């Protein structure tokens, strides 16, 4: 596996692959890789000849500086895992490489209509930071395709909209959420949980499924379902941020005539802010 740290080296490698007619996939990550990330690499391997993973904890998307400094960094283990899944390359830029002029004057990308709701309300500036770093990575790597997890569903829609709005030539693929046996969505933030909290956190997926079943049975009082779930989360010891039933394509509040729905939630448990979501197709 090629270990690349500079943009010059990166461009040389990508040019070489593309000259050889190879299709390149990018899997952007912030490192601290787990099976969920490796499943994104597996998806990318099926649709491209060469997969490059970026490992970069992007300061621009952290609204909370304590959260940024606490974010787990496990570079050696990450590299081992990428070798084990036969990833072709890993790009490990420094903050200086990504933001040579500093972050204050950095041109930023805003993706309106998606960034202002759900997690965007609780984390001001977060999605501008995500869109900006992903746009920079796309310009550096020029990938034919990029793979993002559905666990961060709002992020996935944001990137899809950015690609359309700004005419990036990269195809965006969403990959299914990888879950622990108990249903808990895999996340680097799960390591902030105690063993007992990990068991408790499985309730998130169960609550999403309960809502889905009620929607499929014909419940149209979305607000009632959301409020019931919020009350249940509180009772179970979570600090819920939101439980929302939304239009799957644009995340506007769902209407009773909508067929493709997405149920999304965010809640704090101990030190972790956890998010999860589920598709609900009413056709
Ligand atoms: O999902 C993530 O890990 C990050 O938001 C991303 C897409 C790598 C951008 O920093």
CATH class of the largest domain equals Alpha Beta
The CATH topology of the largest domain is what?
Rossmann fold
Bound molecules: pantoate
Treating each run of at least 4 consecutive H or I residues as one helix, how many helices?
A: 11
Low-confidence blocks of residues: none
Strand order across the biggest sheet? 1-4-3-2-5-6
Largest sheet report: 6 strands, parallel
Our measurement of the CA-to-CA distance between the termini, rounded to an integer number of angstroms, reads: 45 Å
Specify the CATH homologous superfamily of the largest domain: HUPs
Structure description:
The protein is of the alpha/beta class and 283 residues long. It folds into 2 domains: 2-175, 3-Layer(aba) Sandwich (Rossmann fold); 188-281, Pantoate--beta-alanine Ligase, Chain: A,domain 2 (2-Layer Sandwich). It is 40% helix and 20% strand. It is built from 11 helices and 9 strands. The protein has helices at residues 7-19, 35-47, 65-70, 75-84, 95-98, 119-122, 126-141, 153-165, 195-201, 203-216, 222-235; strands spanning 2-4, 24-29, 50-55, 89-91, 145-149, 171-175, 239-247, 260-269, 272-281. The strands form 2 sheets. A 6-stranded parallel beta sheet has the order 1-4-3-2-5-6, sandwiched between helices. Helix 8 links the parallel strand 5 and strand 6. Helix 7 (126-141) packs across helix 8 and helix 10 packs antiparallel against helix 11. The mean pLDDT is 97. Residues 28-30, 58, 61, 130, 133-134, 152, 155 line the site of pantoate.
